[in-house]
């Protein structure tokens, strides 16, 4: 049973197959066709809805999400708002009114998705007003494509939406709605392993013991966290998923725990929740998040899913390799811990054994080390890397120590450049040392040619990113105030 609220009304949908998307549930089962399907792959944002979850203080916090790649069963215990749920009778919501007045829509196909992304931004502004900077607007709207209006009028609408009377949707009059949603979301029997639910093939254990048991019983069932990779198998490869185990609600996979040496991040923690930790302790990682997918994806996707997916062009694996992260693996046979270097075996092959899963990822403190991450992709927002470089090192009396250079997009797996590391280890950051490191890259990588870049491009780009590191270090040590690094950043930060 998918038990949730839609535009203030409770919905209980039974017998929904495990691979149904939230978009299909809304459009086909519930007739809410205002939400559109464009790409069905999380890229265009036409299917964007607002998902409200209890905020811990008696209210609901809304985030935007791509309904096309969201499992319908993950709507359970939420309040979903679609474009049909915003106007109050004839009175448009401020976001809609601003879009009309600023001429933010032509063909209108992208418009419901844009409205819903703006709605979540507007909700955020109502609760925590802050300047709508260019960066915030890009972050809010980076996952919404518009092919005919052009972005300036949409941006104008975003900047003006706060000027309109705050017309609440009708459902906002119901003071019991947040409590009712909370009751649903904390209902221990919801989406649990009850017999009728298991019969639909979608299981959502609430704790580690239950997850281990489900894995023991169904070692071949597909795990889902945010679904932002897995659901593409349904929408793009047209696969059926008969058995799905949802790990999002497993308590032990949702913690961020500090230890004297670093943080254990639960595998089900979303990138959105990681932002404060990254901002405070790993600025280079925080920086990367501006380039990672879109707000819709970051709101749902997890680092556990990014690592387990083992894509050679996934963004966090090279960073984790550069940091020297560790993984806590778990399963019916018990727990074990491995360095991330031992996780990626071959293209999309990992060290996970049958029934095993990633429980948590350990991020060591940077301490006196430095971390730099550069992502090269064709588009700035919502694009996959052609090459991603993550470099970590420390300077000890002018000499580079503990050098770790990791790349994505350069091999069948995310990998460290061990020979290039050896060329730099124990050396001052001189031209000669970096020249040797750059030359070593050619021996240790034979990257693929594909739509994102030729093999030669990737080799040249990877070497150039090392040269960028050298220039950055040269600038740091010479206390030079020129704008070299800023110019470099402007191209590919
Ligand atoms: C439009 C779009 C843009 C994207 N942009 C980027 C980008 O810029 N950079 C990038 O790196 N990625 C990007 N991605 C890919 C994706 O968003 C990330 O890989 C994301 O981190 C996956 O996390 P998830 O929680 O959604 O994983 P899911 O899709 O739920 O799972 C991914 C895979 O891992 C398995 N899995 C999940 N959790 C576990 C676990 N704890 N243990 C074992 N197996 C597990 C699943 O069974 C599945 O095979 C993009 C995807 C889309 C659709
Ligand atoms: S339909 Fe394009 S992002 Fe969902
Ligand atoms: S209004 Fe036509 S795609 Fe945006």
TrEMBL record:
Domain FAD-binding PCMH-type as annotated: residue spans: 194-368
Q: Which domain of life is it from?
A: Bacteria
* Organism field: Modicisalibacter luteus
| Listed PANTHER family | XANTHINE DEHYDROGENASE
Q: Which CDD domains does the UniProt record give?
A: fer2 (cd00207)
- Identify the residues that the record assigns to the 2Fe-2S ferredoxin-type domain, covering every copy: 1-86
EC? Answer: 1.17.1.4
Q: Which UniProt keywords apply?
A: FAD, Flavoprotein, Iron, Metal-binding, Oxidoreductase
Question: If you read the UniProt record, what top EC class would you report for this enzyme, in one word?
Answer: oxidoreductase
Pfam families assigned to the protein according to its UniProt record, in alphabetical order: CO_deh_flav_C (PF03450), FAD_binding_5 (PF00941), Fer2 (PF00111), Fer2_2 (PF01799)
> By its UniProt entry, which InterPro entries does this protein fall under?
2Fe-2S-bd, 2Fe-2S-bd_dom_sf, 2Fe-2S_ferredoxin-like_sf, 2Fe-2S_ferredoxin-type, 2Fe2S_fd_BS, Ald_Oxase/xanthine_DH-like, Beta-grasp_dom_sf, CO_DH_flav_C
Full protein name:
Xanthine dehydrogenase small subunit
Provide the transmembrane region boundaries. Answer: none
Molecular function (GO) terms for this protein are: xanthine dehydrogenase activity
């Amino acid at each position: 049973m998918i038990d949730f609220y839609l535009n203030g009304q409770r919905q209980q949908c039974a017998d929904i197959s495990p691979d149904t998307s939230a978009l299909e549930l809304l459009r086909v089962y519930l007739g809410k066709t205002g939400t559109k399907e464009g790409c069905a792959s999380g890229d265009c944002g036409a299917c964007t809805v607002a998902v409200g979850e209890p905020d811990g203080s008696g209210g609901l916090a809304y985030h935007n999400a791509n309904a096309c790649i969201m499992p319908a069963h993950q709507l359970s215990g939420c309040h979903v708002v679609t474009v049909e749920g915003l106007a109050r009778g004839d009175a448009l919501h401020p976001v809609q009114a601003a879009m009309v007045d600023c001429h933010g829509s032509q063909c209108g196909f992208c418009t419901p998705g844009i409205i819903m992304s703006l709605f979540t931004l507007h909700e955020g502004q109502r609760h925590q007003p802050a300047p709508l900077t260019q960066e915030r607007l890009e972050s809010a709207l980076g996952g919404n494509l518009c092919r005919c209006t052009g972005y300036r009028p949409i941006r104008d609408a975003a900047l003006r939406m706060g000027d309109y009377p705050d017309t609440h949707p009708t459902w906002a009059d119901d003071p019991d709605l947040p409590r009712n949603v909370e009751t649903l979301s904390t209902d221990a029997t919801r989406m649990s392993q009850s017999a009728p639910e298991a019969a639909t093939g979608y299981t959502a254990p609430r704790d580690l013991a239950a997850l281990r048991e489900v894995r023991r019983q169904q070692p071949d069932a597909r795990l889902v966290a945010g679904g932002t990779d897995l659901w593409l198998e349904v929408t793009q490869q047209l696969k059926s998923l008969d058995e799905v185990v949802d790990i999002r609600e497993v308590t032990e996979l949702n913690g961020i725990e500090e230890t004297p040496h670093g943080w254990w991040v639960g595998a089900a923690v979303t990138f959105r929740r990681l932002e404060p930790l990254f901002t405070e302790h790993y600025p280079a990682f925080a920086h990367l998040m501006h380039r990672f997918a879109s707000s819709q994806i970051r709101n749902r996707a997890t680092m556990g899913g990014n690592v387990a997916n083992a894509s050679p062009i996934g963004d966090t694996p090279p960073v984790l390799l550069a940091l020297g992260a560790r993984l806590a693996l778990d399963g019916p046979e018990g727990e074990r811990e491995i360095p991330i270097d031992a996780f990626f075996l071959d293209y999309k092959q990992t060290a996970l054994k049958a029934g095993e899963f990633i429980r948590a990822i350990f991020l060591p403190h940077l301490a006196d080390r430095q971390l730099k991450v550069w992502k090269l992709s064709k588009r700035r927002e919502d694009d996959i890397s052609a090459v991603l470089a993550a470099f970590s090192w420390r300077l000890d009396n002018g000499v580079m120590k503990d050098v770790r250079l990791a790349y994505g997009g350069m091999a069948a797996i995310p990998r460290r450049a061990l020979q290039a590391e050896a060329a730099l280890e124990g050396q001052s950051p001189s031209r000669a040392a970096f020249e040797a490191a750059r030359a070593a890259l050619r021996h240790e990588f034979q990257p693929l040619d594909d739509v994102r870049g030729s093999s030669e491009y990737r080799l040249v780009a990877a070497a150039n990113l090392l040269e960028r590191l050298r220039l950055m270090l040269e600038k740091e040590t010479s206390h030079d105030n020129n704008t070299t690094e800023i110019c470099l950043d402007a191209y590919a930060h």
